[in-house]
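Worked Example 4.2. Read the sequence first, then its structure tokens.
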Amino acid sequence: MPSIHESTHLSCPYAQASAYLERYLRDLAAIGGGAATLSIGVRGPAGVSIEKTVIAKFVYGLDEHHLKYIVAVCWEPEGGGPFPMFDGFLTVESEQPHESSRLSLDGQYEPPFGYVGKAIDAIAGREFARTTMRNLLARLRDTIERSFATSAS
């Protein structure tokens, strides 16, 4: 299974960022009856959008040294289809200066369609997966930073 890592800077301290992330994900799961429904995908050339709804599950915790907030996450495409399954971790960790933090997504995904899917992944699918992860992290970042800005005002 191909591995993937993406991360983004958060203009929000670690403690607040982890709390806002957990609250947002728990709210999504509450709406979905225990599993969250996320829309993932990318906008391609000429404004063509490729999106899929996935059913995601989360398990919350801290690393053993309490330096990172960790959310185990897995998802599969709703109703099947040509999107990969994903299994990995969202993490929030403090950065210097302490008014900021980093949100990362690490994991593995299984391209659909067996060997054909793996061949497509080798040609173009990996970049599609990276862009999808960047878009998801950007949405989470925007949500966390908006929550932080609202609480500060």
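Now turn to a second chain, presented in exactly the same format:
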Amino acid sequence: MIIGCLGDSITAGSPLWDPDEAVRARIENPDERSQWEWWAMRADANLDLRNHGVYGERTDQIAERLEAAVAGAEAIVIQGGINDIVQSRPVEEALKNLTGMVWRARGLGLRVALVDVLPWSNGDSRAAKDIDALNAGLRALAERVEVPLFPFHDTLADPSRPHRMRDDLTDDGEHPSVEGHRLLGERAFSAF
């Protein structure tokens, strides 16, 4: 199954990988294992995941690339929202953009899955509150339109500090480590 994976740096594989060759050329020792898609394809050989992640993009910017991400695909995984939160943009706008992407993809006849927002270890209490609100909105959306929601947040959250990723599962407090991507690809993606 060909699946377009549309999102921000979490989808791209930052900081150790990027689907854009020019960006990857600037990364010292790029490691393609630093993408959850790489691990998911190893867990299920029937998957052909196409990485359309772009570092730093907000949901409105991600939405502009939807059609390109689904060219030739049967399904799409939609991920995003943390950059909206980092830039203190309203959670409602991010949810509206993500909802619009779901409906556009459905209108194209695609299977759709959503991804919730990871904990942001470098964020403050306002960001943690916004992540909780956006994830609650994503859960409600997924239930309402009956699409899978990949539990990226809970997969990497530190049980003793749920608004942070476990230290061994993040490279920089913002992105998953290789081990974090492995868990996302092997566990969270199995919901599709």
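Notes for the reader: Residues 125-145 form the longest helix (21 residues). The domain at 2-191 is CATH 3.40.50.1110 (Rossmann fold).
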